[in-house]
Specification:
With 508 residues, this protein is an alpha/beta fold. It has a single domain, classed as 3-Layer(aba) Sandwich (Alkaline Phosphatase, subunit A). Helices cover 31% and strands 17% of the residues. It contains 15 helices and 20 strands. The strands form 5 sheets. A 10-stranded mixed β-sheet has the order 7-6-5-4-8-1-9-12-2-13, sandwiched between helices. A 4-stranded antiparallel β-sheet has the order 15-18-19-20, covered by helices on one side. Strands 3-14 form a two-stranded parallel ribbon. Helix 2 crosses helix 10 and helix 8 packs parallel to helix 10. The longest helix is centred in the middle third of the chain and has 34 residues. The radius of gyration is 23 Å and the shape is globular. The structure holds 2-acetamido-2-deoxy-beta-D-glucopyranose (NAG) (7 copies). The site of one 2-acetamido-2-deoxy-beta-D-glucopyranose has 7 residues, from helix 7 and helix 8.
């Protein structure tokens, strides 16, 4: 008996000594940011940065951007919701997570995804580090489908789960609340999804959270059907889509899908896209309120100095660029660039960074904050914390990256535009199609020494588009036929290398 007690006391003494040492090491080793800071990610849907998408975000710009870092060169590695969100969750390029499109058979939230990819998403690693994790809003477009487990399926890694069934909606939707179906109709006070996410997030912060925690808020704005909150329905009444740059310009030297657009666009198309442009901004005002309320709550709970807040979107958007009325899915800047703002402990206020940051860097950055070694995971991206909190100047960062897209099509063609034949999709309004099976491409985007984009299409022509963005920021001139062929050769080799990369080889 005696020896048992002695032994136990020794164990206790050792344990306490260990805990003290561990705490000291955490303080000393990483004083600039408290070990295990909280992490909040606010992820919008379809919000561009190139055509004014951040203009309505006055509070967000001030409370996150001017109080922290603004990344002027943030990109998605694939400009479509489900593949992009899958890249954010896994930290991987599409050729490694294998989510090709927004359908179950393209692996969007499919049983195969659940089995092979969900176990490697960032919340899983954070949970293992002792984080409490909370998700509210749109997840992956096919989430909740009966063929993929329905609302009973709670993706791995989430302590508290409030996932939207299906694609973005503002009213009349179903949620999975920790595996229980919760339906909402169309009363503003009870159902407007952006506000509901805000309310549940505040509840989480005040009632449930204990540090360290991860909170992801994914509002439906600014995705279709662009339904504004009642008090914002008349906002921006005189705002129209900007008509500069490539607006209403025919992409005459581009891939066939872009060439089929009608220039000038019809008046009905322009009227349609102007309305969409205004309604997108209206829906974003509720997200701006969300950001202000969340930060206000953090402040009153004394959590502002121990919480990182990230703000970004899944991809960009266009309204009339190259005469394509409305959508994403294209390789151009307006579709692949996204907003990215970050504030938190150790981050200097009101600084702009020019390094290219990718959506696959978010996961690695969260892991870094939580003290997980990213090189021990399958993630392709790279933590950008060192850029934000490192005092040394000799930081190394990528200068180029890969963008991949697999076109969505319809074998029977678009039922509203039968004359267009099979394979195309998204042909509204006015039968201008925004996607097709062979709108499938891969690009290398280089930021320095010059700003360059090289893209190859997987179509019968192996069509190539090349842009010198230093001299041609709006990508008006495809120089594929006029540049030095050795440059094409060099870029082609870089592309082949990128398309075979995984983990560390994507970072070198
Ligand atoms: C879906 O994922 C599985 C396994 O992760 C893979 O075998 C399959 O090829 C993927 N499907 C597509 C269309 O890429
Ligand atoms: C609400 O959604 C259900 C199911 O998706 C649909 O059947 C119904 O028509 C919708 N109601 C309204 C008012 O949009
Ligand atoms: C959110 O909370 C506010 C304040 O309590 C309330 O007025 C509003 O109706 C709630 N909205 C939703 C959609 O839950
Ligand atoms: C289209 O709009 C332009 C400029 O607003 C106008 O001049 C023209 O008459 C309109 N065309 C049609 C067919 O309505
Ligand atoms: C964080 O802020 C709270 C409340 O403002 C304060 O009590 C605490 O000392 C601060 N902690 C650090 C590490 O600065
Ligand atoms: C942030 O910096 C810009 C210039 O880069 C300056 O105009 C602005 O006043 C600054 N804002 C704050 C809040 O410091
Ligand atoms: C999604 O990808 C799958 C697998 O490649 C394909 O069968 C399906 O047709 C694609 N869906 C669309 C809408 O393109």
């Amino acid at each position: 008996m005696e020896s048992f007690f002695n032994h136990r006391e020794t164990l206790w003494a050792l344990l306490i000594a260990y805990l003290l040492l561990a705490a000291q090491a955490a303080e000393a080793g990483d004083g600039r940011r408290k070990a295990r800071s909280n992490i909040i990610l606010i992820l919008t849907d379809d919000q561009d940065i190139e055509i004014g998408g951040m203009t309505p975000m006055k509070k967000t710009t001030s409370l996150i951007g001017q109080s922290g870092a603004t990344f002027a060169n943030a990109f998605t590695v694939t400009p479509l919701c489900c593949p992009s969100r899958s890249s954010i969750l896994t930290g991987c390029y599409p050729h490694n997570h294998l989510v090709r499109n927004n359908s179950l058979d393209g692996n969007c939230s499919s049983p195969v995804w659940q089995k092979f990819q969900e176990p490697f998403t960032f919340p899983v690693y954070l949970q293992k580090q002792g984080y409490q994790t909370f998700y509210a809003g749109k997840y992956l477009n096919q989430y909740g489908d009966p063929k993929a487990g329905g609302v009973l399926h709670i993706p791995l890694g989430w302590t508290y789960w409030l996932g939207l069934v299906g694609n973005s909606k503002y009213y009349n939707y179903t949620l999975s609340a920790n595996g229980h179906e919760e339906t909402h109709r169309d009363r503003y006070e009870e159902d407007y999804l952006t506000d509901l996410i805000t309310n549940r997030s505040l509840q989480f912060l005040t009632q449930l959270s204990r540090p360290p925690f991860l909170m992801v808020l994914a509002p439906p704005a600014a995705h279709s059907p662009w339904t504004a909150a009642p008090h914002y329905k008349s906002a921006y009444s005189s705002i129209k889509a900007p008509c500069d740059g490539s607006f209403n310009v025919h992409g005459k030297d581009k891939h066939w899908l872009v060439r089929q657009a009608k220039t000038p666009m019809s008046n009905t198309s322009i009227e349609f896209l102007d309305n969409v442009y205004r309604e997108r901004w209206q829906t974003l005002l509720s997200v701006d309120d969300m950001v202000a309320k969340v930060l206000d709550q953090l402040k009153s709970l004394g959590l502002l100095n121990s919480t990182y807040v990230f703000y970004t979107s899944d991809h960009g958007y266009h309204t009339g660029q190259f005469s394509l009325p409305i959508d994403k899915r294209q390789l151009y800047e307006f579709d692949i660039r996204v907003p990215l703002l970050v504030r938190g402990p150790g981050i200097k206020p009101n600084r702009t960074y020019l390094e290219p940051i990718l959506n696959i860097d978010l996961g690695p950055t969260f892991l870094d904050i939580a003290g997980v070694d990213v090189s021990q995971t399958p993630m392709d991206g790279q933590s950008f914390m060192p850029l934000l909190v490192n005092k040394t100047n000799n930081r190394s960062w990528r200068s180029d990256f890969l963008v991949q897209y697999t076109g969505e099509g319809r074998t029977g063609g678009d039922p509203h535009c039968p004359a267009l034949g099979p394979g195309v999709s998204q042909c509204f309004p006015d039968c201008v199609c925004e996607d097709a099976f062979n709108n499938t491409y891969a690009c290398v985007r280089t930021l320095s020494p010059i700003s360059l984009q090289y893209c190859e299409f997987a179509d019968a022509q192996s069509f190539v588009e090349v842009y010198n963005l230093t001299s041609d920021p709006h990508q008006l001139l495809n120089v594929a036929k006029t540049v030095d062929p050795s440059l094409l050769e060099q870029m082609n080799q870089r592309l082949i290398k990128f398309q075979a990369c995984s983990g560390a080889s994507c970072r070198s």
